[in-house]
Amino acid sequence: MKKAFLTLCTVLLLCACSSNNGPLLKGVAQLDEDAEFAINYLPDGDIYQAKVIDLRVDSITGAYEFDMELPEGVADVDLYVNQQIFGAHLEKGKTTIIDIRQGEDGEYICSFSGDNADVSEAVSAAAFAYDLFSLQDMSYAEAQALVDKRHAEAMQKAEAIKDATLSEYYQKLFNARYTGMRLRLLGDRAAEEKCKETDFPEYAQLIATIDPNSDLDFTAMNSILWVMNKVQAAQPTFKGDYSGYCLEMMRVTDSLVTNPKLRKQMAYCIPQTFFAYGDHETGKEEFWTRYQEFAKDYPEYIEAFKSEYEKVVQNMDGQKVPDITLERPDGTKVPISSLQGKYTYIDVWATWCGPCCKEIPHVEKLVELMKDNANLQFVSFSVDSDRAAWEAKLEKDKPAWQQFILDADANKTLSDALGITGIPRFFVLGPDGTIVNQDAKRPSDPELVDYLNALTK
User: Fold this and answer.
1) pLDDT tens for residues 273-316?
2) Which of 58, 190, 210, 274 sits between 20 and 30 A of 184, alpha carbons compared?
3) Which domains does the chain have, with CATH numbers?
4) Alpha-carbon Rg of the chain, whole angstroms?
């Protein structure tokens, strides 16, 4: 199931009045028996606080209902049906009806009725239009052309909303989201061409249209791009020294950001970036001291990341890896100790994680390059909750190295022990099962080959 570190799922939060006590969402879903069916909801529009909620369907009738407390009054949510993405407009006191069936090509089709059906149609078109994950295997030109087409279709749906005020709002929102997609695609293009986003004049022009303190750009997830663009320090490579970069993000936020929603989001984003992507060796004390002052209005975040800081101070290298159970694609379960006997480079990933999937071709090259090293093996641990998505990815890629999936308990045990707050994450075990490097370099890092050769010679 897609989790939103992820990235890039849309939720709009407004205010509304209630008129009845029906469920927020209901309908009939004619799904395959093992189909994923879930809602992604972002409290107060914050992507870092995403909640993925599984929907239960009656096994005989296909009927389903969904209800929850909705403090904001109104929310636009993403709806996942297997690997397809739709959207729904939820309003307290009103009921949106979404019926789902399979078309002749096997793809799922949604139909909308009930309260605010026209708004839900527009929100659903936008969820599809601005889904970055659906563009992963495309070139920049192909992706941009498809986004242009989908954006035009979403705008048509927004223009068709009967309520003039809502129609105008959604047109503005969709244009803002289109700006964000263009920026992100330019970022991918820069990575492909090994240059900086700012080398493209269009990037600066698009950034200049963003108001970081407007709720519209916050909802479109553009504000955080604007903040990162204002940071003058170059973003380090994965597992590089992130202390200066994160300190400057705090400075930029303190000096330029007034929107309370964005300030709160940055209070979570910055330490998450430091602990998930930094080397954890450089500047950790200075970072933590400064962060506690920066996030003083959000003590819950300080408390949440305190344990991560303590794990960094108390490095796990040299200690035994937790005794967890791994499951192979054929369902066979084995202990992690079964990997002992060689040095083991482990990739922790998920199908819904874009950066994880981008590293897979580099793992493949690494496996081929080092296939004659008898002292080294490569292993991947999937943390997918959607096993079918994992199996489909393996069937498509046909990886030549060992693949395992972790259940929720094993994932939590490993993450707690190694301080894993984001993926992809890579670590190395010694032949005796001890942790040699709890935070190894990515396969795409050219320095990794020399490290592994020196370690296993």
Assistant:
1) 998 888 766 788 899 999 999 999 999 999 988 877 877 666 66
2) 274
3) 13-129 (2.60.40), 231-313 (no CATH), 325-456 (3.40.30.10)
4) 23
